[in-house]
Every structure is written in structure tokens, then in C-alpha cells.
Write a structure and sequence with these properties.
The protein has 401 residues and is of the alpha/beta class. 34% of the residues lie in helices and 28% in strands. Strand 17 and strand 18 form a beta hairpin. The structure holds adenosine-5'-diphosphate (ADP) and magnesium ion. Adenosine-5'-diphosphate binds next to loops. Magnesium ion (MG) binds next to loops.
């Protein structure tokens, strides 16, 4: 059994939908039991966001989610029609028709569960189900969407429920050592471990959505990234596998980047740890992701400066909740930043990577504002306009080209 997911560019035009349907038809004729999941046509989600935004409705508004869900409604029906044209029986399914049950806020919901009985019935009747990704409903029937890249999560969850493999078809032939749009010499990886893929995704490599990888890891769903732009059988792709299944030993697997980061500093916070706890609790409640936390002693005795980075798009929201939660603390923000990250399971054994990262970026005259490490990752906060140079320099320095 295979769940095949097609992203926005893979269903971006009638021709692309036809080509994707051809790949599904080919697999079905080879005897695979196929279920398809689709994103909205490329550009559609942004277009709809713009329309809702004209009325001041942003991500996080019930009505924005109702509008957004229309994108996948269109593409799922078109894909079903394309499969029919290719001589197969197919039928579209919207989130509420399974249903896919979600919890969490509009625009950033999580999948709480799903019922695949209607899909099983369709499959038994020889019909290929085409599921609208990115959407579900709450227990009370409200339409919800899953956030950017959410169709990857729809696909992983469907694959778990259907006990299928999860094939993610996109516009690149797998997971590369870095974004091939930034470094044309990036190489495709045959395999990548869940944990490395998680770090790459969390640090900005949008080829797979972070939560979908978490889900696949937790539920043991085999996941593969493939190109929908090649002919059937021509895509080599990348398998996302457990660390033990990686044959090739390498220090670094990839370089990721995230543009448009901001750094917030809280000056004069008390050094009692409940201050920091209150700060991060209020941000978590507002769904603001926080990274690269630094706490330093301030000149004023008993006080500290607390600094951390967030995505620029969360800045207004973060400042609003912090001004509420942190009275008597001065809050400042720096924008125009980016994050570059080097990811690899081999970093566990190598303490000198921080030094070499400083050296590589230093050679390029790129200032490192903050450095953060985890077991298998090292990230630097730099200026936005240096990000492509930084990615290419690190990619070469760690022998990835
Ligand atoms: P889809 O619409 O199919 O979900 P995305 O745009 O979300 O596709 O993800 C695919 C894109 O991810 C590629 O076009 C590529 O520019 C980008 N990307 C970033 N990092 C990587 C990487 N390490 N390997 C492959 N692609 C990457
Ligand atoms: Mg995507």
C-alpha cells in the first residue's frame, strides 16, 4: 500500500496534475494499492490568504481556515478527474468526509485522529481515494487547517492509519545536502535518518514538514521523498529511515537555512528563573516558536538580559504577549536576521565543529550574532543578506559538494 502525496507545484497546472495522475496510474497498474493526498495548486494558499487579509483576517481566524480549505477541495477534485481520464476509478475526499479530527487553533491545528473507513471501502471497491490534504474538522465540526507544509502531515497520518508507505512527491528528486535552489552543487542523499531530517526541517529545509517527520518516526511509517517531475520509475529519491539503517557514515548530512528571523531581548529581568519561565510560557501559549536562547548577567545586580530568536512573522504577536506578561522589563527587537544550520549525526563525536563554523563564516566576513548547538546540529544567527553565501561556504567546507 502506498499513500502518494503531491505538493503545490506538482499539481500547479492541468499538465502537472495530468503527469502526477500518470505516476499514480503507473503504480496502480503495477499492482500497488494507491491512495493520493494533494496540496492546493501552487500559489493558491497565498492567494486565498491575501483575499482574507483584505478584510484583516489572518492565519488564526476561523474564516481564513474556511477559505483556505477550498484550495485542496479544488485540487483533490481535479486529481480525481485526471485519474479518471487516465482510465482509473477515483474519488475525492474532503477532511470532513473521513473525518480527519483536529485540535489546536485555526491555521495551526494538529491531527488528533482520523477515521479511514470510507477510504478502506473505496479501496475495496477498486476506487483510488484522493484526499484533500492540510484540512480537517474539530470535534464540533469546525473546518481547520494544519499550517504550512501541513499536507505532508496529512500524508504521514493517512499512511499510518492505512498501514501504507508514505511517498512524498515534490519538485526535487529527494532530500539534498542543501536547498538546490541556493547551491546547484547540492547532492541528493539516498537515505537520511529521522533525527537528521527533523533537524533539517526544523531549521528551515521545507522539503518535508517537521511534524510529518516526527509522526513518521513515532509511528514507524516508511517515508520517501520523490520527484513528480520525472517519468515513472526515473526518480531515485531519498528514504527517511532509522539511524541504524544508514549505511554511509558522514560527519555532516546537510545545511539548512531560515530567512527572516528576529531577535528579542528582555533587559533588566530579574534573575529568578520564574521570570524566564513566565516569558516562555506566554510565548508557547501564543504558539510562538522560540530558539537560540541566551541569558546573560546584566550590569544591574540581580538582573539578567534574556535573548532569543523567533520567526519575524511572529514578532508582533510575541511583543504583544510579552508586554502583557513581563511588566517592568524593557523589550527590544532586532530584525533582518537569518539562521544557518549544519546538521549531522556525526557531530555527536566532534566538539570542534563550532570552531570550524566560526572560521568558515569568518573567512566570508559574516558575523555570527548567536550560536546554538544541539546534539546533531549547530546553528548561527547572521544577517539576512549573507544567508546564501553562508550556505554555500558551509556546504563546501563540510565536503558536501
Ligand atoms: P511541495 O509543494 O511539494 O510541498 P516544498 O516547496 O514544500 O514542495 O518543498 C520542496 C522545496 O524544498 C524544493 O523546491 C527546495 O527548494 C526546498 N528545499 C530546501 N531544502 C532542501 C533540501 N535539503 N533538499 C531538497 N529540497 C530542499
Ligand atoms: Mg511542502
Amino acid at each position: 500500500r502506498v499513500v502518494a502525496k503531491f505538493g503545490g507545484t506538482s499539481v500547479g497546472t492541468i499538465e502537472r496534475i495530468r503527469h502526477a495522475a500518470g505516476l499514480v496510474a503507473d503504480a496502480a497498474r503495477r499492482g500497488e494499492t494507491m491512495t493520493v493526498v494533494v496540496s492546493a495548486m501552487a500559489g493558491e494558499t497565498d492567494r486565498i490568504l491575501g483575499l482574507a487579509g483584505a478584510f484583516g483576517s489572518g492565519l488564526g481566524d476561523r474564516e481564513t481556515d474556511v477559505a483556505l480549505a477550498a484550495g485542496e477541495q479544488v485540487s483533490s477534485a481535479l486529481m480525481a478527474l485526471a485519474l479518471r481520464e487516465a482510465g482509473l476509478e477515483a474519488q475525492s475526499f474532503l477532511g470532513w468526509q473521513l473525518p480527519v479530527i483536529t485540535d489546536g487553533p485555526p491555521g495551526a491545528s494538529r491531527i488528533a485522529g482520523m477515521d479511514v473507513a470510507v477510504l478502506e471501502a473505496a479501496i475495496d471497491a477498486g476506487i483510488i481515494p484522493v484526499v484533500a490534504g492540510f484540512q480537517g474538522i474539530t470535534e464540533t465540526g469546525e473546518v481547520r487547517t494544519l499550517g504550512r507544509g501541513g499536507t505532508d502531515l496529512s500524508a504521514a497520518a493517512l499512511a499510518a492509519a492505512l498501514q501504507a508507505r508514505c511517498d512524498i512527491y515534490t519538485d526535487v528528486d529527494g532530500v539534498y545536502t542543501t536547498d538546490p535552489r541556493v547551491e546547484p552543487d547540492a547532492r541528493r542523499l539516498d537515505t537520511i535518518s529521522h533525527d537528521e531530517m527533523l533537524e533539517l526541517a526544523a531549521q528551515g529545509a521545507k522539503v518535508l514538514q517537521t511534524r510529518s517527520v516526527e509522526f513518521a518516526k513515532a509511528r514507524g511509517v516508511p517515508m520517501r521523498v520523490l520527484s513528480s517531475f520525472l517519468e515513472a520509475g526515473a526518480s531515485r529519491g531519498t528514504d527517511v529511515v532509522s539511524e541504524q539503517a544508514i549505511a554511509e557514515r558522514r560527519l555532516v548530512s546537510g545545511v539548512a537555512y531560515a530567512r527572516d528571523q528576529a531577535r528579542i531581548a528582555l533587559h533588566g529581568a530579574s534573575n529568578r528563573s520564574d521570570m524566564a519561565a513566565r516569558c516562555f510560557a506566554s510565548l508557547a501559549e501564543a504558539e510562538v516558536g522560540v530558539d537560540m536562547i541566551v541569558q546573560a548577567h546584566a550590569r544591574q545586580p540581580g538582573t539578567v538580559t534574556l535573548e532569543f530568536s523567533i520567526a519575524h512573522r511572529d514578532l508582533d504577536r510575541a511583543q504583544a504577549v510579552l508586554e502583557d506578561a513581563m511588566t517592568g522589563v524593557r523589550i527590544s527587537a532586532e530584525t533582518g536576521l537569518a539562521k544557518v544550520s549544519v546538521v549531522g549525526a556525526g557531530l555527536r563525536q566532534r566538539a570542534d565543529v563550532a570552531r570550524s563554523l566560526f572560521a568558515v563564516l569568518g573567512d566570508q566576513d559574516i558575523a555570527v550574532k548567536v550560536l546554538a548547538t544541539s546534539e546533531i546540529k549547530i546553528s548561527a544567527l547572521i544577517e539576512n543578506d549573507a544567508v546564501e553565501r553562508a550556505v554555500r561556504a558551509l556546504h563546501a567546507a563540510y565536503g558536501l559538494d
